[in-house]
User: What shape does this take?
Amino acid sequence: MSDSAPAEVTAKADQPPTGKLSGGPRRREHTLSTAGGLSALSLDALSSVAYGPEAMMLVLIAAGASALRFTLPITLVITGMLVLLVISYTQVIAAHPDGGGAYAVAKQDIGPRTSLLAAASLVVDYVLTVAVSLAAGAASLGSVFPALAHHLLLVALTGLVLLTVVNLFGISESAKLLMGPTVLFIVSIIAVIVVGALRRHPVAVIGTSEAPFHATEALGLVLILKAFAAGCSAVTGVEAIANGVPQFRKPRIRTAQRTEVSLGVLLGAMLVGLALLIRVHHVVPRGGVTVLAQLTAAAFGTGWPYYVSNLAVTLVLALAANTSFGGLPVLMSLLAKDHRLPHLFYLRAERPVYRHGIIALALLAAVLLGAVEAETNKLIPLFTIGVFVGFTISQIGLVRHWRRKRPPRWRLRAALNGVGAVMTAVAVCVFLSTKFLEGAWVVTIAVPLMMILFWQTERYYAEVASELKLGKTPPHPRKRQSIVIVPTSTVNLLTEQALCAALSISDTVIGVAVAADEKEAQHVKRAWDEWHPGVPIEVLVDPHRAFVRSVVRYVKSIQKEDLDVTVVVLIPEIIPRRRRHEILHNQRGRLLGAVLKSRTNAVVATLPFHLHE
Amino acid sequence: MSDSAPAEVTAKADQPPTGKLSGGPRRREHTLSTAGGLSALSLDALSSVAYGPEAMMLVLIAAGASALRFTLPITLVITGMLVLLVISYTQVIAAHPDGGGAYAVAKQDIGPRTSLLAAASLVVDYVLTVAVSLAAGAASLGSVFPALAHHLLLVALTGLVLLTVVNLFGISESAKLLMGPTVLFIVSIIAVIVVGALRRHPVAVIGTSEAPFHATEALGLVLILKAFAAGCSAVTGVEAIANGVPQFRKPRIRTAQRTEVSLGVLLGAMLVGLALLIRVHHVVPRGGVTVLAQLTAAAFGTGWPYYVSNLAVTLVLALAANTSFGGLPVLMSLLAKDHRLPHLFYLRAERPVYRHGIIALALLAAVLLGAVEAETNKLIPLFTIGVFVGFTISQIGLVRHWRRKRPPRWRLRAALNGVGAVMTAVAVCVFLSTKFLEGAWVVTIAVPLMMILFWQTERYYAEVASELKLGKTPPHPRKRQSIVIVPTSTVNLLTEQALCAALSISDTVIGVAVAADEKEAQHVKRAWDEWHPGVPIEVLVDPHRAFVRSVVRYVKSIQKEDLDVTVVVLIPEIIPRRRRHEILHNQRGRLLGAVLKSRTNAVVATLPFHLHE
Assistant: This one.
């Protein structure tokens, strides 16, 4: 029953590929409406407007405040790409009504190597979604409460700890619960755009300084491309709906496609609207306050609507981070089922959560946040690459899918996805070339490393499977002689319990003790014989009274004598009532067990003895 | 055979109370001559001259350089105390020819509570000996190689790591090996004193600045007492010989007493000699160079004798730190044998070393060194308290010993030790009152905390012992029915091996698998029946396919059905050839084992399956 590779090869996945791997909650409700789909699967995409435009502006401002005039044109280009992506993903929905992310698509339609690339990109994507969303959320909170502005790392890490704990306990997210914050967020952003376009509050009322950024670069194509690359972070997450199609209400494909289009329209409108507002109000990135917060202040002033709106942004960013906690552990469990990660990643104990995956995600995100001190814009160069690799793989997979299936108008469909794939692949090249030194190199190292890790793990498990002759019927089991050895030192209740258990499982039971010399050995034998348990005792003499070594040597000698005997070493173990008392017990027994397992073929049996005091 | 309290109650200590608990190496050679005794048991005391006088001067200089004129008088007072201590300890030697430190004396002659105080003080003493010796050794090395002077913490921690590794591997110290450095050290110091008294090199050639310390305090009684307290660190370690009497050549008591007196004479002469030299040369404490190094330079100039002499000092300080590695782990093992520390502290695995004690000592010393950034003088206020508490306890014990035994001239003996006890007790009060805020508070918190820890541990083990009815003969063991459960998922070589072992130890063997629904259950049953292993299978249906929970529930149901049956759960475990592959295997099996142990009374048996490729 070992959970090693072979034992699980034929077991079916007990968890369908949902999550943000398909973007949303893990419960399959089959009842998502368009609005529900937006809440459950699009928070990651929608919340991108909180950091995407600002990331772009921070690149442009390196060439001086006047360069910010390119904000609107670049946003329009990105919105154009968004349109193509949305069209492309409505196709993905039609082609893969069972959902499944880039990993599943690549495994099915392209090949194992590409699926490794997809998996590695997705891991990077999930980790960065958590880090970026939390960093942006902290920045948003810092805009509202300036006291927090100097402790963004602390705020982000606190959020991370909260999310981790909540997810370790297991949460049953529901689309209905998410609907409130989502609606509030969308209404806030639209209100900011509409009200902000109509009236003008002074913008300079918030933030630390007028113009903290100095022109350091010339405005040129490279800078524009960099700004585009940074701005593309605003369209991350649009793949989620396509991956969660099974969760939608019937007719599934239609509902999902409608949701995807709604997301596209909403996201596009918000991006363009905010870009227009930025131009109208001449907003400039400032320290201690986000661009979005400045726009909110410009529209509402700094009264309660300002607070409500910014807190909604913070909340939605935190929920976006939470989607990764739904997604990455599930992806890791799928990788583990494919023998590409240690099997412990699909191990669940008391609670139905993949805690190893959750902890891995939390640690990786914490390292990232710490490395950049929770500055969103330092993470952006790393972020978009993984997402766009996923976009590209999904669409290449789809082109192959259409060519193979040849449904009506397959050429048009393939062309659409092909254009999409080329576009996103070009975007990846742009990201890599312009942002390499600013952080993209991390991804170019991490992704191949992870691919090697997955591949090595898979190969190792395959070797083990062949050694265990998996798939072949093993010989019939047969009964052998058995000897039970009970290590002991003094006669007490524990010894008696151990002998009871030993006698129950074998007719040949031997007590074993260790003494420093013959005299002590005689003493031990006498005490044993006085008790008269009906079981012989063997006293091993070792001048150093080295217990573990002596017992191991004895077990080896027995196994050498008779190869066809099952040797069982029965070790009683005290189970204290309180966990913290564990350190006071059993170390020698555990040590003996561990050494026996690694050095001999003996069965190591542990008899628990529960304390009641 | 569990190593819980009761199992060891009657076992004899397999390690006599030697070590620096008795100050020296752990091998009992029974052959120490006076010179050998000085090398093996007095390094800690002798090396104190490297930091004691300087610690005193650093206190005095707070009242200006002129206050340094008190160096000699205070040294004379301390030397007077040394004389009384040496006389007192020659008595200890006569009274306790079997050795044993303050802990053993207090346990035997005073009572359990005082022995706890002695133990806690000794722990503090050992840890501080390591920290102080390494810090002083680093300072000494930094005096010779100024490049190291700014990295004293690094130097000290490197030394600590080296000592820890060497001790984890186990070393067989020998007095002969230690004799070389000891002789070199003593000769160096005496040469410094003699040569320094005869000729004068310019002192100011080494060190960073002329007078880096500014007068900040008025000269008064408090300052003098503080200087006395700091200087007392020079007499730490004189107890070691008395604790190591069994190691001496016959006539043991005479040899040991002669060694103690030799130590007193040597140490006293060095202290007074150095104090005289300090006065003659007007030496002032300086940054980056120790007082002893300045004196050496004054005597020899900065040629090769300067290097040899200082390196001898460094070496002897490192060896002094090493004596604690011989002592504390042994003390902790004795405390563990008395059930006052977790029993794991007397657990030894492959090598005959108490690695848990060694690691505990290394960690504590590292924390201390880090906290004071390896500045010797910040550790001094913490150091002497523990040592002098030990002095006091030993002598009070001796007074009681004389009163009970009433040998010839017992009144004189008791008076001598009584005076000694009062003197050291007063010294403790002086240390505490003058140095409280400078670090002594750490000790006043640490010691009671440790006493509580020891006491609580002892009480806990006593409760466990009573629950195990220790000391009473248990009932006779009797045979019961047994059922072996073999959790499995698919039929493979591992299953076959597990069934072989299971059949060997019981006639009733049941395979157990978990399926998500009836259909899957039928499938598993069919595969099993096709193999036809001659063992029935029970397929547990659980919609979540929760393996661990289902198996535990099944085991509980069997135990409920028949209380008089021994249930064994046999779990195969893959043992990979390389240790790093451990993470790829067995997590589910281990989880199942752990949950079974904590929730049921079932015997958890593990069958190791060794991979070969």
